[in-house]
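Weekly puzzle thread! Below is a chain. First person to post its structure in C-alpha cell form gets bragging rights.
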Amino acid sequence: MPRTTLNLSQFEILTFDCYGTLIDWETGILRALHPIMERYKVRATDDELLEAYASAESKAESGKFMPYRNVLEQVVRDLGAKFTFNATPEDQHSLPDSVKTWRPFPDTVASLRRLHRRYKLAIISNIDDDLFAHTAKLLEVPFDFVTTALEVRSYEPSFNNFQRALEKMKVSKDRVLHVAQSLHHDVEPTRALGIHSVWVNRRHGKAGGGATVKSPAKPDLEVPDLKTLADLAGC
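Winning reply:
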C-alpha cells in the first residue's frame, strides 16, 4: 500500500474528477471511435487514437467556450483531418452520444460508498449537465456538490472551475482533497491553488498519457485505484 504523509482525517470533502477517474472513459472513447476508424479504413493503434484524442480535446477546450458535446464533435472533425477522412454529422454525434454508455471502473461504486461514510463527496468535471445526469445514475452514490464546465463556462485546468466549487461548498481549501486521474487538468491547477490532491493513476503500468495531456505536476499522493484510497482512509 502506498505511504502518505497526508493526514486523511483532516479533510471534510473529497472532490472528484469524473471521466478517467470514476468512469473508464478510455474504453468508452475507443468503443465509439473504432467503428469510425473502420469505416474509413484508418490504421491506428489504440494508443495513437487516445493520444490524438487528448491533443484534439485540449485544443477544443482551450478556445472559445462551447458545451462538451460540441467539444467532442470537434474532436471527431479534428481526427478526420489528422487521419484524412471527412467526418459526417453522424460520425460527429456518435462520440458525445456514447458518453451515457461509458461505465464506471470496477472499484468505483463500492469505493465511493465506503468513502461517503466519512466524507462529503463532490464532482468537478469537464462535462455538460445533461451528460453527467446519465453518468450519475451509473455511479449510484449521491454527490453533495456538482460543478460542471457548462455551469462555469470554462474547462479545467482553468482555476475558475475549482474556485466555483470552493464557493459552492463553503469550506476552506485545507479541508478539501481533490482526487483525479489527470495531472494536467486537475493536479496542476489544484497544486497552484494550494489544494491537496491525490493522483489516481489508472494507467499504472501502461506507456504514454492515453486520453490525457501529459504534465510534470506532482500530487500529494499517488494511488493505482480508488479502492486503495478507501483503504488508506480506513473507510
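Puzzle host: Confirmed. Bonus trivia for everyone else. The domain at 8-24+105-232 is CATH 3.40.50.1000 (Rossmann fold).
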